[in-house]
Write a structure and sequence with these properties.
Radius of gyration: 17 Å
Low-confidence stretches: none
Family: Belongs to the short-chain dehydrogenases/reductases (SDR) family.
GO molecular function, one term: glucose 1-dehydrogenase [NAD(P)+] activity
Protein name: Glucose 1-dehydrogenase
Order of helices and strands: EHEHEHEHEHEHHE
Keywords: Oxidoreductase
CATH topology: Rossmann fold
CATH superfamily: NAD(P)-binding Rossmann-like Domain
EC number: 1.1.1.47
Length: 249
């Protein structure tokens, strides 16, 4: 299938590696123009644009935890592509894990800033851009985690940030719907996805915990995001899409 996102413009944060790149690949395949971002992985951003083509893609280096970073990516998107249809809030960090009494405030805050505050900032500027350039229509997708559904005992900051993203999704979706603004907001909750951040030594044990017997691929999240970004999902709003091979079934 192709052209499910034809004519649409999407921003995908953290879109140059791992899950974000998988989403971007699916989006370009389906006809979307994509703006991918990263804070540190500039080489990955350049490689993504080279792969997709500069006519349908753009890389913007940004810090998702700052208003300045968000204004930068919105300005660049509108300058190149003229509008915004889809925002995928995908950028995230795992942070420092451990017993909560051993974590510093800085450890906590860095995760909250990137995983939750950035989603608030992204929603805020994306909604304004969609109102100004796309007749107040669009789709926002917050990539949360299964840790937003069930807490991870040694990742309190990560669990809190992903749970917060889940509830931010619900609140924003309801707020927009009750004001009759045709911008949908949904969350995606990946389980174990086979990316470079998964420790090789832990893979065998992780796979044993997954009912289907294998980890997911970045494209597995990308395909769900295609659906949520497309007009096919016009009645999906404020919903949670868990993609974890049955772990939370």
């Amino acid at each position: 299938m192709a052209n499910r996102l034809k004519g649409k413009v999407a921003i995908i944060t953290g879109g140059v590696a791992g899950i974000g790149l998988g989403i971007a690949e699916c989006y370009v395949r389906e006809g979307a123009k994509v703006v991918v971002t990263a804070n540190h992985n500039v080489d990955g951003g350049k490689a993504a644009v080279e792969k997709f083509g500069s006519d349908v893609s753009l890389f913007v280096q940004m810090d998702v935890a700052t208003e300045e970073g968000w204004q930068k990516v919105i300005d660049a998107t509108l300058e190149k592509f003229g509008k915004l249809d889809i925002l995928v809030n995908n950028a995230g960090i795992g942070g420092v894990n451990g017993a909560i009494e051993d974590l510093s405030l800085a450890d906590w805050q860095s995760v909250i800033d990137v995983n939750l505050t950035a989603n608030f900032l992204g929603e805020k500027v994306a909604i304004k851009a969609m109102k100004e350039t796309n007749d107040a229509k669009g789709s926002i997708i917050n990539v949360s985690s299964v840790a937003g559904l069930v807490g991870l005992p040694f990742a309190p900051a990560y669990s809190a940030s992903k749970g917060g993203s889940r509830m931010l999704t619900h609140a924003t979706a309801l707020n927009l719907a009750q004001r009759h603004v045709d911008i949908r907001v949904n969350s995606v909750h990946p389980g174990w996805i086979d990316t470079s951040i998964v420790p090789a030594a832990a893979k065998e044990q992780i796979i044993k915990s997954i009912p289907v017997g294998h980890m997911g691929k970045p494209e597995d999240i990308g395909e769900v995001c295609v659906y949520l970004g497309s007009d096919e999902s016009h009645f999906a709003n404020g919903a949670e899409f868990t993609v974890d091979g049955g772990q939370r079934a």
